[in-house]
Amino acid sequence: MTDCIFCKIIGGEIPSKKVYEDEFVYAFNDLEPQAPVHVLVIPKKHISNVDEIVEEDKELIGHIYLSISKIAKDLGLEKGYRVVVNNKEHGGQSVSHLHFHLLGGRQMTWPAG
Q: Which residues contact 8 (CB under 8 A, 6 or more apart)?
């Protein structure tokens, strides 16, 4: 998708502070961190939101969660962390490319907001 900011980050058109990358996933530090550690983990395949995930994406979604676990370990989040996926406008999604917020480095509170 040519107008997607996350697709442009994956393609190197927009700079980012890469944390992790493999064949299917790209992860980078959020520009407006909400915790001491705030990494965005995105699939390289453009999927607009949770509702756009299809049956053929189930292995990709599993791979994303395995990648999140690896990233969290690499970043020393052994005390715990939070993974947030906002979906569509009312869910707080601001970029129409499926993305996972990995938040850690402090005690998380509930309710989230």
A: 14
